Amino acid sequence: MTLKVYLSGEIHSDWREQIVEGAKELDVSFNSPVTDHDASDDCGVNILGQEPNKYWHDHKGAMVNAIRTRKGLTDADVVVVRFGEKYKQWNAAFDAGYAAALGKSIIVLNPPEHQHALKEVHAAALAVAEEPRQVVEILRYVLTGALPG
């Protein structure tokens, strides 16, 4: 069995790299949104033309980014949604809802202090992890039936 995993959420830490590295011996392919913050913010105006109003600047970028996001979420078997400490990831919450509407298996990854704020997102998930290694262990178990350690 091969799993297609979409890694959604915060882009300010190396959680994606930890999961990809930890799962390198597993039959998993990974996809994610563009994680270069400047490229993600400015893709719309760089490709489609400048906007004097910041709202339309952001709107163009969101629409262009949504092409990749929708494709990644639609193709995924499992969607991992990471909520980090520093910023509120509204886009990650939207991705979790979209994935839930598509009937995708969702793993939420967040620090324990976010448990209450994310209770509705957690209710849609099949697993809630606090560390990237736990996500790797879930993927390993799903693919092999092997428990950690």
Automatic annotation (TrEMBL):
It comes from the Bacteria. InterPro entries: YtoQ_family_protein (IPR019884). Gene3D superfamilies: 3.40.50.450. This is YtoQ family protein.
